[in-house]
Write a structure and sequence with these properties.
The complex is a heterodimer of chains A (393) and B (280).
Chain A lengths: L1 H27 L4 H7 L7 H16 L12 H13 L1 H4 L7 H4 L13 H26 L12 H32 L17 H7 L2 H12 L9 H19 L3 H21 L8 H21 L3 H13 L9 H23 L4 H5 L1 H17 L13
Chain B lengths: L1 H23 L10 H10 L6 E6 L15 E6 L4 H11 L5 E5 L9 H8 L19 H9 L14 H16 L3 H23 L3 E5 L11 H17 L2 E3 L17 H13 L6
Parallel strand pairs in B: 1-2, 1-3, 3-4, 4-5
Helix pairs in contact in B: 3-7, 7-8
The chains are: A mainly alpha (393), B alpha/beta (280).
Chain lengths: 393, 280
């Protein structure tokens, strides 16, 4: 328990003290040097990820799950393994969040011949393609979803920008995760899948089974279930869903906009549970359900870009007011459609072959061609270098 | 491993095909979307430009008309300024016969990230031979530029909605109103480097012209702009460079307090050309 508190204390101190102090400063007008110091504390990179991994290690050990053989090995062996688990560099900065019970059994002597080259290379190509070609090019354009610049765009352009940002955030984060998984594979380690074609989700619960899987399973295993999950009555289930998503939102960043983002997802999960009773949409209703989930998810991504809630509201105000402004359709707008099309195709290929490995089995030559094209695009069509969106978390 | 080899083979075929295409049908363009593209064009087009304009995004207004009869290159650098353009000329030693230097944005200094990206990257020399490495040959923009003439998005025909314009103007007034000691020190440092480069160009026979692009009239006497202007007035007197000062006879319309609207840009260009002591 002490260990969990220690990890959470580190996270809270570095990540949330600026938010708490700025809120106190604003509400109570506390102008003193201590508040100033708290406001300027730099955020250690990747802290949200490795503190969660530390907590998972402690809780797994506490629950007696097979993490490591505590009986064998010296203190220094355990220390080395734990340090290696926490600092394993491919995923350190932005996940996937590893669980100790999945990673520890893999720590052993590695042989060059055991490396799954094909799998690693494919993951790296796809990851770099999503990041360097799709996300970086879109980043250059969606830059204008910033206050006050968005106010000069027409309604149609604002919708297109938001759509582009939704594609960008997926390509950026899924791209990083694939690069991390590919790098892990080169070292002989299997890192968990983090994205599973999230934009085909027909419900919010499905979306969270497909988006940032390592975070949602972490929240499920170490927060939702310990809180009672869905075993303690209907009202308690709604509360658990809401509080888990609220905290999941705050995990993303020290800003109230992230809390609102998490709360809204919590709200939609609650509504879904109340009215749909987990009955999946099928037939003609499914495309509508997919569109609805995508629409809400995309709208809420705006809170990631405009972390000042007033600016978030102004964006919608501009959408309502700028209907008469001329619609711009130049290279930027064409680029949004072109690069977004690649993300859409990525999802469609999955739907067509009904699994992520279906293309490999049914059309191996097409698969080779697609990977060659992606590698070609990385060289000739990368966007301006931009940092990963999730590095800030 | 077999599949990896096939992927690499496919990739090589695509790269060779694209290189051949670019060699056979090189893309010639006068308008460049980014500072990287513009810099690469200046370096890799292997041309000696008799006239070069070095400036910030404010000098982008010169792209709306053909300025001179002689061949010229407009090295305007959005988010940077003339210090960056002059540094590029210095590094390439592709010194023009006449250099026009915009005086507005010396505070921004040299864009070191751009300079490092262009001059220190591992493919620097390879770019002479492998055109697919050039930014202007990125697949989609290249394809679009062949179909449709490139346009500069930043030059506005009209003012944006009032709520945005007022915000942008207020931001500009705030920025140009800030002349702290730190900003002054930065300008002094940047100015010294710029002055040194201009002196060396001048010694090699380059004729230097300085010019100030007009902005919103409320910014004319702003502390930052006045300080920069005074630096150049002194330089112009000391070194004998001609200084085409901002036109104060009329109030220019801008889209954001800084960048001229197209119609006013045309008026300014006439004023600019009339300020030259000879035809180019």
């Amino acid at each position: 328990m002490l260990g969990v508190i220690f990890n959470l204390a580190i996270l809270t101190f570095f990540k949330y003290s600026p938010l708490i102090s700025s809120t106190l400063n604003k509400e109570f007008n506390l102008n003193n040097s201590f508040v100033d110091v708290l406001l300027t504390i730099p955020l250690p990179i990747g802290i949200s990820f490795y503190t969660f991994e530390g907590i998972s290690l402690l809780l797994d050990l506490y629950k007696g799950k097979t993490v490591m053989d505590m009986e064998s090995g010296s203190f220094s062996t355990h220390l080395k393994r734990t340090a290696f688990f926490i600092s394993f560099f491919p995923h350190l900065i932005a996940g996937p969040i590893l669980k100790a019970r999945d990673f520890y059994p893999q720590i052993n002597f590695k042989r060059f011949k055991d490396i799954r080259w094909e799998d690693a290379v494919k993951k790296l190509i796809l990851g770099f393609f999503l990041k360097m070609v799709i996300a970086d090019n879109l980043n250059n354009i969606t830059h204008d979803i910033a206050f006050p610049f968005f106010q000069g765009y027409s309604t149609a352009n604002l919708v297109l920008l938001l759509f582009g940002y939704s594609m960008q955030i997926f390509a950026d984060f899924a791209g990083y995760s694939l690069i991390a998984i590919g790098l892990g594979a080169l070292f002989g380690y299997n890192l968990p899948k983090n994205f599973d074609f999230p934009y085909i989700s027909a419900s919010f619960s499905e979306f969270w089974r497909r988006w940032h899987i390592s975070l949602s399973t972490w929240l499920r295993d170490y927060l939702y279930i310990p809180l009672g999950g869905n075993k303690k009555g209907e009202l308690r289930t709604y509360f658990n869903l809401f509080i888990v998503m609220f905290l999941g939102g705050l995990w993303h960043g020290a800003s109230w906009s992230y809390a609102v983002w998490g709360s809204m997802h919590g709200f939609f999960l609650m509504m879904e549970r109340k009215f749909r009773k987990e009955k999946p949409a099928d037939g003609k209703r499914k495309p509508l359900a997919v569109f609805f989930v995508f629409f809400i998810v995309t709208t809420l991504w705006l809170l990631f870009k405009l972390t000042d809630f007033t600016h978030f509201l102004l964006y919608f105000k501009a959408m309502g007011q700028n209907t008469r402004l001329p619609i711009k359709f130049g290279l930027d707008q064409l680029s949004i459609l072109f690069f977004s099309l690649a993300v859409i195709l990525y999802h469609l290929i999955y739907l067509r072959y009904q699994s992520s490995s279906g293309l490999e089995k049914k059309s191996p030559n097409l698969e080779v061609l697609l990977y060659s094209i992606m590698l070609f695009a990385i060289i000739v069509s990368s966007g301006p270098q931009g940092s990963f969106i999730y590095f800030q978390f | 491993m077999e599949k990896v080899k096939k992927i690499l083979f496919g990739f090589l075929i695509l790269i060779v095909a694209y290189t051949l295409f670019l060699k056979l049908f090189p893309l010639k363009k006068n308008i460049f979307y980014t500072n990287d593209e513009r810099t690469e064009e200046f370096i890799y087009w292997k041309k000696q430009y008799p006239i070069v304009i070095a400036g910030s995004s404010l000098s982008g207004i010169f792209t709306i008309v053909h300025l001179f009869r002689q061949h010229y290159f407009n090295m305007y650098m959005p988010y940077a300024g003339s210090c960056t353009g002059v540094e590029i000329i210095k590094r390439t030693q592709n010194i023009p016969k006449t250099l026009f230097v915009e005086t507005n944005r010396i505070d921004r200094g040299i864009d070191t990230t751009l300079i490092e990206n262009v001059f220190s990257e591992p493919f620097y020399s390879l770019k002479y031979y492998l055109p697919f490495l050039l930014k202007k040959n990125r697949f989609l923009p290249n394809l679009v530029d062949r179909v449709k003439a490139p346009q500069i998005n930043s030059i506005s025909l009209h003012r944006p909605p009032l709520v945005l314009y007022n915000q942008l103007l207020a931001d500009a007034q705030k920025e140009w109103g800030d002349l702290s000691d730190a900003v002054k020190a930065k300008i002094d440092r940047n100015f010294l480097i710029l002055k040194e480069s201009l002196t060396s160009f001048s010694k090699k026979g380059c004729e230097i012209y300085l010019f100030e692009v007009p902005m919103d009239s409320s910014l004319y006497k702003s502390p930052l702009l006045t300080y920069e202007r005074n630096c150049f007035i002194k330089l112009s007197k000391d070194e004998g460079y001609k200084f085409i000062k901002a036109d104060t006879t009329r109030s220019y319309k801008t889209g954001d307090g800084e960048h001229l609207l197209k119609s006013d840009g045309v008026v300014y260009i006439k004023y600019f050309l009339s300020g030259l002591d000879k035809k180019f």
